[in-house]
């Protein structure tokens, strides 16, 4: 039975991965996060949990010594672009230095490292979906640190998979980061207006697909980068309209604006759609449609 350590297990993707692996009942699962377990199950307990500050080398060393994992799934990150833009040192420690140390520890303990990255490593000037062979050129500090983290893994890990995801959505637990799907639903249900950019394109990823794609990479024999994203490439405004359609809410509350009109403090890539052809072909990855994801979130 493989021993799997999920780092960032209080977060949105990390918690879903932890739960899904536990439900399989074929792995020994260990969770770790900066804080104590925020969402311990009440009816069963199928995993151990170790609070760990991954920026503390001694704490990270102790975590690996205690667990001795076969597989490490790193979902932890400082992932808010605006925050990263004004907190460079903290972002670098979390997204680069800690990742480098994880890669080295995985080598020391013979662990496979599966690391979640982002579409924000790309510049956003492409006229087609980005593939794994395209060269990153991030436009903000968050994207820069995630790309640097990828390079540290490639340089220091002998057994790894990097899974790039984009706008992960689904039902969030209390205290977790929201997502544009949930935000749109909450605003529209309350009768509030919603300003959304109409010229930034993404491939939204259902959180259950992040979990499934990650599991498929556990036993995959090759190292490399894999795009684990959705099939449909939409603008942020398109997403809001799809939520409104599904919930039969008022379109007139949605106000599409350009990136220039939105005036975001931190630049974002205009187009960061990810091609999933490699993941479909090599690991049998098949994501949910947006409609299927909406049904999972909100029902009919």
Structural description of this entry:
A 7-stranded parallel sheet has the order 3-2-1-4-5-6-11, sandwiched between helices. It has a two-stranded parallel sheet with strand order 7-10. The chain is of the alpha/beta class and 300 residues long. It has a single domain (3-170, 204-232, 274-288), classed as Rossmann fold (3-Layer(aba) Sandwich), CATH 3.40.50.720. 41% of the residues lie in helices and 18% in strands.
Give the topology, please.
Elements: E1 3-7, H1 12-24, E2 28-33, E3 47-51, H2 57-67, E4 71-74, H3 81-86, H4 88-109, E5 112-118, H5 141-156, E6 160-165, E7 168-169, H6 180-189, E8 194-197, E9 201-202, E10 205-206, H7 207-218, E11 224-227, E12 234-235, H8 236-247, E13 254-257, H9 259-262, H10 277-283, H11 290-298
Parallel strand pairs: 1-2, 1-4, 2-3, 4-5, 5-6, 6-11, 7-10, 8-13
Antiparallel strand pairs: 9-12
